[in-house]
Description:
five-stranded parallel beta sheet, alpha+beta, FAD/NAD(P)-binding domain, 14 helices, 2 domains
Amino acid sequence: MQTMAYSAVKENTSQSPHRGAGALVVIGGGAAGFFCAVNAARMHPGLRVTIIEKSNKLLAKVKVSGGGRCNTTHACFDIPELVKRYPRGQNFVKKAFHSFNPNDTISWFAERGVPLKTEADGRMFPVTDDSQTIINCLLKETDKYGVKIRLQCEVQSVTAVANGFELQTSTGQLRANFVCIACGGYPKSGMFDWLRKLGHTIAEPVPSLFTCNMPGNPVTQLMGVAVERAAVKVAGTKLAEEGPLLITHWGMSGPAILRLSAWGARQLAEMNYHFTLLVNWLPGQTERDLRNAWQSYRDEYAGMKTGNKNPFGLPNRLWLYLLATSDINPDTRWAEIPAKEQNKLIRQLTAQEFPVKGKTTFKEEFVTCGGINLSEVDPNTMQSRKQPGIYFAGEILDVDGVTGGFNFQHAWTSGWIAARSIASAEIA
Length: 428
């Protein structure tokens, strides 16, 4: 059921008296920054809002997300279930989602002429299947509410002064009553130093969504082969996931691998991304299960060549590869598979080992684990507990979700809550 938080607050802020003119500077021209800026400007018509972006591109991740379609959110409307999609920050987002959640995201965009649709796996996209639709909607809101945008303007420092803050940037100085920091995650710890000067501590950054490199492994010759469902596990750990798996020219990718990398972000970093990946091509079946069922396959397909009969529904190229790695000639008939090779094939089907040596960033879904320590931010307002008047939104916080629209949902939620808080704050 849709929460009343979004609609009720929207109505109240539009009717409440505002406390004089003031200025908000939003650092970062991504999803969270834009959502904070346009909502703050809408909720407080007297507020002067400026977005500053260090690059020459706005909403870059929105543009490339979901293969250029923008995976805007996920059709998961039960908050306790929703928070399970966040490897870090579950308690924080649980509180935040009571203010603004996927139902509210759907309503917000629909009210602006951008309906979303749900795909079979729960991911939600604009019905146009074009990320530019989301970008155009947000840009239209900036025009409607007079939000100013400065490109190629990099923040060098933020200093508290009387009645607000002074921002030193690559293009000059700015003054603001409020600052919302929504500049995304940083890959290196030193890049957070300007935020440490505001009194904040940082959870060290490491990549959260990445694919597994398997240099020189014969499996890479199957690049392009996709398996609808596979179970993957990091040997010697509790890290395990299931889902679609894609074989690439450098190793393995797909939702199963990306979810594994998100949950194991810190642990895999400590292993320097060198580990053994166990793949069960028949999830739900253990090696023992398959051994018990094997005789029935031998009996049913006795006279058929193994290369011509794949009873497991696996892609043909993958099946032939599994036969080859089990030393089984594809012309061998099912009834004639030697015991040693049979055992090897059963093992390969249920727990094939792949040495992983390194990672590759999944460009479209680049996410960093780490950021502003969550104990230092109020999830009900997104305001810093260390420095009143400073707010945070998006990936700069130590929150990250698995792939599937969850990181964008956090961006919309944190941006909206910061906007609501700023719009109702007293301006000296």
